Amino acid sequence: MNVENLSIRVVAEPDLDAILRIEEGCYPLPWSFQQFVQELENPVASLLVCEVENEIVGYICYWLIADEMQILNLATAPQFRRKGVAAQLMTQAFSRCLPEHLSSVWLEVRAANQAAIALYQRHGFKQSGIRKAYYRDGEDAIVMVKTLKNQ
After folding, report:
1. CB neighbour list of residue 42: distance below 8 Å, 6 or more residues apart
2. Phi-psi region for residue 75, left (φ > 0), alpha (ψ -120 to 50) or beta?
3. What is the pLDDT of residues 57-103, one digit of tens each?
4. pLDDT tier at 6 (50, 70, 90 boundaries)?
5. Could you tell me the domains of the chain?
6. What does the pLDDT average to over 6-10?
7. In the Cβ-directed half-sphere of 108, how many Cα atoms lie within 13 Å?
8. Rounded distance, CA 27 to CA 102, Å?
9. Burial code of 9-36, b = ≥16 C-beta within 10 A, e = fewer?
10. Which residues have CB under 8 Å from 70's CB, separation 6+?
11. In this structure, what is the dihedral angle of CA atoms 35, 36, 37, 39, given to the nearest 10 degrees?
């Protein structure tokens, strides 16, 4: 599958069915449709999708609060993993936030998700801590932070 012609845009409510299919295929405890709707209505939240040939293949949900970005959710359809989709979504999110003079970007990732941890490390994130039994199924979360230079 060719990801050279990908595009990234802001999420619209009609995108949520496709996003939910990816979410359910990626996570053992996926967000609900209503959780995504709440994020669309949340004034501090931003959601972006990545499309390849008009097919949604990934998304990111993040919050901007003061001078920090919090990545809440990032997922790529299984057949598009390791093709740069998640990296492009993060890069686009960071570039959209440049005028906000961010000092840092935070996220939590499942301790067992080594592929995601490696992706975040490649993009400058460092482990900051552990949240014990953070997820509903009892798995720990690794807290990761990327410190940015003030603009």
Report:
1. 63
2. beta
3. 999 999 998 889 999 999 999 999 888 899 999 999 988 877 667 88
4. confident
5. 6-147 (3.40.630.30)
6. 93
7. 12
8. 29
9. eebeeebbebbbebbeebeeebbeeeeb
10. 62, 63, 105, 106, 107
11. 90
Q: Which amino acid is at 125?
A: F
Tokens of 1: 């599958």
CA 67/CA 94 separation, integer angstroms:
12
CA–CA gap between residue 112 and residue 147 (Å, rounded)? 24
Instruction: Name the pLDDT band for 28 (thresholds 50, 70, 90).
Output: confident
C-alpha 20/C-alpha 43 separation (Å) is 21
Angle at 19 between CA 14 and CA 24, to 5 degrees: 140
